[in-house]
């Protein structure tokens, strides 16, 4: 609901100001402050609700800028840094500055700006968050003219968990996966990703976007989660390490280590003894393009000005038994949780409260805002 407050402004002469009782000035300022609070309160939808407006076609860049913003605070992860606890004598500035991206202090919570639209056929989500390092080349290989070396890095990413509307239990990331994990369920420190439900019960729909492994092919991995772990909507592994050791071509231990090397180059060709210039690259992981319901969630992403922006698109109804269905008829919405990874596979940030996605009926889009 938007409160419309109109006022008439007229010029006041110096003589009028002299006549104004001075003791009323503080009361007037207080009244203005209260009025501003009322206006702000009228404009702010319920805090844990993400509202999706209906559009006739896919949202444009202008549509995203006018969309209703919904900030989600995630806690408990690690920012990308050089050392977990650097030597303070060697790196005083970094370890004494909690906000520094390479510092050793416990990281501050991260705020993710989430926005949503839907059409007659699809749901669109946009997630944007600050990340000072672009990590989308997981364990990438580089050739120096004589040997291959892996960069040893991980990747950025996020996960969205959706609770089926038939499941009426309280829901959040902490209750679903990390209730016994002090890093998330507690007040501070770092989360360790167990990626399975702590208790037996209904499944959760899970979307995983990985900056390198799914990002390069424009999708988010559509899976589901239960007490046994993660399962693809279409079974099978889409990702495998690009490693001679992993492929069984050598007996040397140390995956991605000094004595390992890639099997395929960046074009998917087997690497032999042919000439390659120094600086040639090869992916750390090979990824198969998903098919069937594993490919239901499409993604476009870019990193700019120290921020990731990712737009997801999924049909409202997929027909898969482990996919939630989105509809404006669900007036209470769909509960979901969010986790964010920064150059890691497990120590991630996670939302702690219940978030709800509500698809407003098409008539609400004409009004401009939810009441």
SS strand fraction: 25-35%
Q: List the helices and strands in order.
A: HHEHEHEEEEEHHEEEEEEEEEEEH
Estimate nothing, just give the exact number of structural domains: 2
CATH topology of the largest domain: Immunoglobulin-like
Per DSSP, the total helix count is: 7
What can be said about the biggest beta sheet?
Answer: 13 strands, mixed
Please identify the top-level CATH class of the largest domain.
Answer: Mainly Beta
Q: Which structural category fits the helices and strands? A: alpha+beta
Radius of gyration: 25 Å
Secondary structure: number of strands: 18
**Alpha-carbon distance between the two ends:** 4 Å
Fraction in helix:
10-25%
Would you write up a description of this structure?
The structure is a single chain. By secondary structure, the protein is of the alpha+beta class. The protein folds into two domains: 1-44, no CATH class; 50-367, Immunoglobulin-like (Sandwich), CATH 2.60.40. The protein is built from seven helices and 18 strands. It has helices at 14-19, 24-43, 61-66, 92-95, 173-176, 182-185, 362-367, and strands at residues 49-54, 70-75, 110-118, 122-130, 141-143, 148-150, 157-162, 204-210, 219-226, 229-232, 239-241, 281-282, 285-287, 297-304, 307-315, 334-341, 349-351, 355-359. A hairpin with a 2-residue loop joins strand 9 and strand 10. The longest helix has 20 residues, at 24-43. The protein is elongated, with a radius of gyration of 25 Å. This is Cytochrome c-552/DMSO reductase-like haem-binding domain-containing protein. InterPro entries: Cyt-c552/DMSO_Rdtase_haem-bd. Keywords: Electron transport, Heme, Iron, Membrane, Metal-binding, Transmembrane, Transmembrane helix, Transport. Pfam families: EB_dh. One of its GO terms (molecular function) is metal ion binding.
